[in-house]
Fold these 2 entries.
Entry 1:
Amino acid sequence: MFSTSRRTVLKTAAAAPIPALLPGAPASSGVTLTVNGDTVTRQLEPRVTLLDALREDLGLTGTKKGCDRGECGACTVLVDGRRTKSCLTLAVMQQGREITTIEGLADGDRLHPVQAAFIRHDGFQCGFCTSGQIMSAVACIREGHAGSDDEVREWMSGNLCRCGCYPNIVAAVRAAADEEQ
Amino acid sequence: MQNFAYRAPASTTDALRLGTGTGARYIAGGTDLLNLMKDGVQRHDLIIDLNRLPLHDITPTTTGVRLGALARMADVAAHPQVRRRLPLLAETLLAGASPQVRNAATIGGNLLQRTRCWYFRDASMPCNKREPGSGCAAQHGQNRWHAIIGGSAHCIAVHPSDLAVALTALDATVHTLGSGGARTIGIRDFYRLPGDTPQVETALRSGELITAVDVPSTGLTGRYLKVRDRATFEFAVVSVAALIRTGGGGVVREARLAFGGIAPVPWRSAEAERQLIGRRLDDAAIEAAGRALTLPAAPREHNAFKVPLVRRALATALGGLR
């Protein structure tokens, strides 16, 4: 199911070879990841973040690269069911863990209830933060942190929306939480 | 990010053997280290992943709770023993970072996170902490975030951890393991004031690991108050961890006051505590404690506001404990 992303092709074509690594520094090694139920192995350098591995090596571009510093939350994925920022961990550190991305939420053509709630409540404008918001919301609800608007605001604070769709995001998370009860 | 070699040892013996090499660095949650490496603030030839080591447990002890160095912030904050016996600790952990970061960040890594001083984090700027002898751009630069107490002509960066402030009020003990064996270090001896060696931030020796933190339950009533520029997911401008025990007539028998955002280390003020002992927790006593706290303050151009701010934060925190 994983195909090479357009960006990877462009980068591979345009980029100069990596300048001399430190003497003795490792080349790539085989890293095995389980993503959305599929177990795949890719040759990755140690410095490749989980985010870059998902996007550039596995072609799963639903996970977005916003700040790449853990501040915006656009790269949120689930690792063993817990939300985390994929830009703040190395792919090689996540071997043996179950990773879920936005591509793994829907059941065929049937959207996950949180995805459906975001559409119903108009929880986005440009959509760049949305996959991170949704992954974070899935965990937020599962953790039991969606009981009031204030609680959702606090427990969704790791996800920023530059379009300012917060009221609708809060409404979507509350609605999805109510549905699950 | 400059590339590096990667190892994930399964034993502390192997970790220490690798960790004594030059250019080696441990990684736990990675939530601070990876940013520093992406920004070129730190470069390491070998990254040693500690996550396979058996240091994850949160264990009740006779005196309190022992936190494994690899315990995640979120797990500690949610742990029933922590919530029951150390509510101040749970409250403090939940005031820090974001849910995603708390799922990844560890107790040991939290204590060893680097300052948020923007000159330290900008590799193009002089910084004695990052590059000893290069100068301190904060002294006459944008120093709104910086220390009002305990700084030096070489560094006025503040320690960013909320957890460390609470642990300083709770008199926690840090357990370490190095090539010379195991040590226990009181939290108040763990952090070092900058003096003329701001690159030395803690009592840890080269290659030494934090293995656990012992947190005694105090029986005192506590509160962590964090003042920040936005409601959540932000570092403290100032913060207060206050623990109080009162006796008959509401007279204060014991007081422990630790502060974040005002000093290069989590700042415990014995002078402020002394002002409260034997008195009722009234406005006059709280005012006296605040004055004693800020007596040694030497604010810079942009951070004089922290003097009244930290006093008011103290007053609010103590007012909530009356």
Note: Chain B touches chain A at residues 1-6, 8, 27, 29-31, 34-35, 37-38, 45, 47, 49, 51, 74, 97-101, 103-104, 231-233 (CB under 8 Å).
Entry 2:
Amino acid sequence: MATAYLLRRVVETFKITDVSGLIERVQQVGQRLLAAQPREMATGNIVRRVLGVIREEAEEDRDGETSGCSDGGTHSRPLSAGEHDPRAPELPGPVSRALSSSPLRQDTGDQPPFEPSEDGAFERPTLLTAHASYANTNTGPVVTSMFSLLSHPRSNVASTTATPGSQSSGSLPPISTRALANLTAAKDLGAEIVVGIQEIVEELNQADDQIAGYSSEHIHSNEIILTHTSSITVQKFLLKAAAKRRFTVFHAETFPNDHESTHATVIGKANGGPDDELRLESFQKSLTVAGITVILTPDSAVFALMSRVNKVILDTHIVLPNGGLVAAAGAKVVAKAASMHRTPVIVLSGVYKLSPVYPFDTDSLMENGDPGRVIGYEDGGLVNKVEVENPLFDYVPPELVDLYITNLCVHPPRTVGLKVLIVCLRGGHAPTYIYRILADHYRTEDIEFDRINVCQ
Amino acid sequence: HAAPIHAEPEKENKNVALFDHLYGHPRRTTVAGAGKDVHPAVLALGLQMRNYVICGSSARCVSMLLVFKRVIESYTIPSRNSLPRHLTTHLSSQIDYIVSCRPISISMGNAIRWLKVEISNVDVSTPESQAKSDLCDSIDTYVREKVTVADQVIANKANDKIEEGDVIMTFAKSSIVQQTLVEAFRRGKTFRVIVIDSRPLLEGKNLARALADLGLEVQYSLTHGISHVISHATKVFLGAHAMMSTGLYSRAGTAIVTMSAKEANVPVIVCCESVKLTERVALDSFVHNEVAPAEELMIQGRTSSLLSKWEDVPNLQVLNLMYDLTPAEYVNMVVTEYGIIPPSSVPVIIRLSTNS
């Protein structure tokens, strides 16, 4: 959520000259966010979505310009550069691109593209050096860099900034007028992109409520539900069902990492944690007030209870393309116990949690928390002798999950193909379809945006 | 006018409906109201059990037998009554008191059954002092045979299963597992121990501390970390509250550990004295179980303020289950003093141990 707001600001404040610059900028911001919290995949997902919006708007823009070129959207990759293709047919492709983008690039190169960055948090010097080193590596084989320009919108930035004088000096005048026209178009483009990001923000805001909308299709009267960790998504889902039906909820407390907010949730008070603002915003009356019997229980009792539980509803941290998920530690045994007892496991997840990054090694997604939560300060002596483990997340393989419920149904037209799926599966989807949703949501070129600079 | 509003939620039944049959009366917290027959040692023992000072199936069983010895020593046959007849009822009132403090364990039940048979076998013609000392001797023998020596035998047998470089995982605290690990350490085996623990008793912390003090390499985590640490383990050693032919009945959370072990193909070895074997069968953790007071789940400190008011929240219940049943399929072997058996052979050992 905060990511979307941040990126909106980035886009708003960014002097839009051309799309590739903007994409680059967003990528850099995204990389910085990811570097700060590499396992917070939702952040990366939002960045991808924003990139997707930018690319889409750019494509629409170009389609408008090249009137009649209706199939322009199919070769989507050379976005910014492609704008000038039809206008300068006499020039060889790569050269024209280099020329057309060079004045603009020079502009951003002289006063670096990071200049308008509003946030003190981003240290420009490091970004600049990264930029410079990037350019250096590309100067050598000019031909290859020009070639890669076709497939990589980012790399034309480097090649042109690296060799600005040699190529652009002669052909500046004819380009400038076009650049001017381009600039005005780009301003509209910027506004459109901001609107697009706004849509994403709204989607995030509504995600939980949309998910909750499916609750009546999945919870029947007198059911016993088991859930794990405190989650606003799950709470809203259950609350919505509670409006019409009576059921019982076993709530595993998720000691030691999340038990405080779980306790706060069952008691019906907003947690005074660091994300206080968000919680207060989405604070609602608790389940118990709605007349639902909530039974708080330690995590250890999950297996014992499972034989009487009708459904397990889990929140998730991220959902992986294979249909597995990364959730709060302890979720794995809950899901496993459920599958042993043939109890269906439903995972509630906003689409923004569906992550296209497939981790080869799921251990790399894991994170260890504060051991002090496992062994308190009163047992300080023990800490010296005993290795204390406190994982924060669990990887739950897809075979343990029966259904995903996302907020997809009321989604922009991009997911038309999905709507069919959704209708077929009545609001939920089986884990195996997750990859399809991903394909609809993220552009392939954005999936690895965080790796683009890695080799430099 | 605030009083009636507060009184109303208090009336609400805070018992979890599924476990209503397990609640019984609230646990006794003081000796007030105990029967006048109840021996002072029993009074103390009851409270110790209630507060988990004496915790664990065997510890409770042994301490109960030792206290009964003192009861028998200070017992005099009332006039016009015989020892086999009257002592049983006298003991029953002691047992009732102990049960009111905390429900008795399977091993205690087995021991009580044995003691009652012993008492009824006493010849009426035996002089009182003789009969009493005989009973005390047989209690000593029972404790020695069934627990002390049995533990040593089991520790030795289980030790054969520990190999160099093993990573032994255990859950909560079992005295017999501790003894096994200590014995292995004494024999100079190099191995690592992972202790998994769970709220609210956190018994494993004591085990981890004891083993770490010895110099063993110990890793400690809670049930939430099980799916991570299980991949490092090569064997799981567990104690038991009771062992049935249908499964292992032990501290809540054991089933989670064994399930993860099964998934990771790690063998599960249960160390269990024959007193803990029972012919009772259970298919789930609902019919037989113990529900501990919910207050024990409250955490002192920062969150205490949050959860301590749970009773005022309507429709909120807190469940503190003591045990769960691990299906027999998760248990690879049971080490008893009679030998190493699969769970399905539990009735055989019961027959062996009760006939001898």
Note: Chain B touches chain A through 57 residues (CB under 8 Å).
